[in-house]
Specification:
Blueprint: E1 13-22, E2 27-35, E3 41-47, E4 56-62, H1 65-69, H2 77-91, E5 94-99, H3 108-119, H4 124-130, H5 143-148, E6 154-158, H6 162-170, E7 174-179, H7 190-199
Parallel strand pairs: 4-5, 4-6, 6-7
Antiparallel strand pairs: 1-2, 2-3, 3-5
Bound molecules: guanosine-5'-triphosphate and zinc ion.
Zinc ion binds next to loops.
Binding site for Zn(2+): 64, 75, 77
Active site: 136 (proton acceptor), 138 (nucleophile)
Function: Catalyzes the conversion of GTP to 2,5-diamino-6-ribosylamino-4(3H)-pyrimidinone 5'-phosphate (DARP), formate and pyrophosphate.
């Protein structure tokens, strides 16, 4: 990429720079943005031609240091990150936005506090509320200027979260297709995933089958 691309392009964000990022699955280009209001560094991993007007295979991933980096099995984040990058590599093009909204927007220390409350019996939603937060504090406004940088207007979005799809639509980004991302259900995260499905609307089949009603078979 030429240096002339390294200029501020958006009100909310500065586009900073890029480099090649070899991964086990493909060589992506890593683009760095800085959010003006907070100084947070947000990332885009791009593979192939995503500016050709076709819907782009995409993942809008929220930071989860424990899951993405420290191999935590409490959640499905690390496996979703890997699964999304593999799928983009398999298809030969796509984009992964890595948004620094750790702990559904409450930050790492508060997420650890929330985990501690979950160890005492709260579920993931109750734990946030006990700490004085909404169940999900995330916003997605930065997705628009990040995608504008690559002239992307339509997504094949890898997610199970209907609120993420609504947020894209409200930003004027078309979600041409939802691509489910169901990975790494395990003994440690099944209650968390079932709570996401029951209370946060995530589109996931519960692990425990619903009771069969009389006469249903
Ligand atoms: N506050 C809080 N945040 C959590 C917890 N577990 C994971 N997270 C954070 O939740 C975010 C990921 O959200 P998820 O609900 O797993 O997934 P999603 O992004 O809404 O939906 P998908 O696109 O389907 O993955 C990351 O920022 C994690 O750090 C938890 O128990 N409490
Ligand atoms: Zn996680």
């Amino acid at each position: 990429m030429s240096l002339s691309a390294e200029i501020p392009v958006q009100d909310e964000l500065d586009y900073m720079t890029s480099c090649a990022l070899p991964t086990p699955w493909a060589q992506f280009t890593l683009h760095a943005f800085v959010e003006k209001a907070t100084g947070k560094e947000h990332l885009a991993m791009v593979l192939g031609d995503i500016s050709n007007g076709e819907p782009v295979l995409a993942r809008v991933h929220s930071e989860c240091l424990t899951g993405d980096v420290l191999f935590s099995q409490r959640c499905d984040c690390g496996a979703q990150l890997e699964g999304a990058l593999k799928r983009i590599a398999d298809e030969g093009s796509g984009v992964l936005l890595y948004l620094r909204q750790e702990g559904r927007g409450i930050g790492l220390v508060n997420k650890i506090r929330a985990y501690r409350l979950q160890e005492a019996g709260a579920d993931t939603v109750q734990a946030n509320e006990q700490l004085g937060f909404k169940p999900d504090q995330r916003t997605y406004g930065l997705v628009k200027p990040m995608l504008d940088q690559f002239d992307v207007k339509s997504l094949r979005l890898m997610t199970n979260n209907p609120r993420k799809i609504d947020a894209m639509t409200k930003l004027g980004i078309e979600v041409a297709e939802r691509v489910p991302l169901l990975v790494n259900r395990n003994a440690f995260n099944q209650h968390y995933l079932d709570t996401k499905a029951a209370k946060l609307g995530h589109m996931m089949k519960p692990l425990t089958p619903a009771p069969v009603e009389d006469g249903a078979l």
